[in-house]
Write a structure and sequence with these properties.
binds adenosine-5'-diphosphate, binds magnesium ion
Length: 365
């Protein structure tokens, strides 16, 4: 696809979204030799376009190691992107100005605009301002919560760091956040180890909420808690979304949870989005062979259905993102591969309205 065509289709597909990424990349250096210089790059996120509407939950699924966490952290700038754009709550006109400056090759204007408007290129005060609007709940609350700090200080920390409130005013906000997640005044002076896994994750959510953000990255938020409390945590996240009008990127490899909480689902494979559609469509009619294989492994509660359902076994592991396979990255494991698959990289194509697939089985046009 030529740049012009790509930009046009990108603008159309991402239109009106609160968050829109364009060609986002995050590569990690592999250091080697005595000089510890980069000898290779881990291409963890390698050209990702996603878009999330305000108030929506986008589920992000894929096998372990395919880049979900890196994408989530890069979007909110916990990691610095290697390349690409992150547009957050920006008018269409501003985005177009940036794309046009890029197309003209007007480096000075592009730099000026990006530092002001493109989250991928922001620094200092500007970045901090945006960071306040986006928070993350990590996979493991035990490592995310400082064991030597009392709950009141853990939850108040973002307020103090951002210099928003301290003392009494901070405590009021802390209490409000704790109450929102079903905890209360009696928990303020306790330490993380005094809580159950589910409660600890509630504390982590309170800490994310205390800055009154608009957008949350939830990185496998229930994977460290007992199965019995998972449903309740999911319910809480749904209620909080409703109450505060939150927008979620919900990362998980647990498809049942993704199905419950997501409005749309994006499937990631080796640094790329391979399929994206609304939840019902993608679960009922997955089109990418990778999605089909991934979803066929999902346990089915109904035993009759389970017998009828054919399981497609995914052979081998995810290849290394240091040297991803040529063409379509999934081709070495794909049962449906044919002529172009090891040569040409497929682009995300809108196969049906709102259903995007990057696979040569579904050619453009
Ligand atoms: N800080 C890092 N340095 C080098 N490689 C990393 C780093 N973080 C993640 N990776 C690599 O990037 C790839 C994607 O990892 P990750 O985003 O954690 O995937 P997921 O969350 O889908 O399991 C993996 O190959 C992982 O080893
Ligand atoms: Mg992860």
């Amino acid at each position: 696809m030529i740049a012009r065509e790509y930009a046009e289709s990108w603008l159309e597909k991402t239109q009106g979204a609160l968050l829109r990424t364009m060609g986002l990349k995050k590569h990690f250096p592999v250091l080697g030799g005595v000089l510890k210089r980069p000898v290779a790059w881990v291409r963890a996120v390698d050209g990702v376009d996603i878009w999330i509407q305000r108030g929506e939950t986008l589920g992000l699924v894929g096998e372990s190691g395919c880049g979900k966490t890196t994408l989530g952290r890069t979007i909110i700038r916990l990691l610095d992107p290697t390349e690409g754009h992150i547009f957050y709550d920006l008018p269409e006109e501003t985005i177009k100005r940036i794309i046009e400056a890029e197309e003209r090759g007007d480096k000075q204007e592009l730099k000026r605009l990006r530092e002001q408007f493109d989250l991928a290129a922001m620094k200092g005060k500007k970045l901090k301002e945006y960071r306040r609007r986006m928070q993350i709940v990590f996979q493991n609350p035990l490592t995310a919560l400082n064991p030597r700090m009392m709950v009141k200080d853990i939850v108040a920390e973002p307020l103090v760091v951002q210099r928003i409130a301290k003392g009494e005013a901070a405590m009021e906000r802390v209490l409000e956040a704790l109450q929102a997640v079903g905890l209360g005044r009696e928990h303020l002076r306790r330490y993380p180890h005094e809580f159950s896994g589910g409660q600890r994750q509630r504390i982590a959510i309170a800490r994310a909420l205390v800055l009154r953000p608009e957008f949350l990255v939830l990185d496998e938020p229930t994977s460290a808690v007992d199965v019995s409390v998972r449903a309740r945590l999911l319910k809480l996240l749904g209620e909080l979304q409703e109450k505060y009008g939150l927008t979620y990127l919900f990362i998980s490899h647990d498809l049942s949870q993704v199905q419950v909480i997501s409005d749309r689902v994006a499937v990631m494979y080796l640094g790329k989005i391979v399929e994206l559609a609304d939840t019902q469509t993608i679960f009922e009619k997955p089109l990418h062979p990778y999605t089909q294989a991934l979803f066929s492994a999902k346990p089915v509660p109904d035993p009759v259905l389970a017998r009828k359902k054919k399981r497609i076994v995914l052979k081998g592991d995810v290849p290394s993102p240091v040297n991803p396979p040529s063409g379509c990255r999934f081709h070495p494991r794909c049962l449906k591969r044919f002529e172009p698959c090891d040569k040409e990289e497929p682009h995300l194509i809108e196969v049906e309205p709102g259903h995007w697939v990057a696979c040569h089985l579904y050619p453009p046009g």
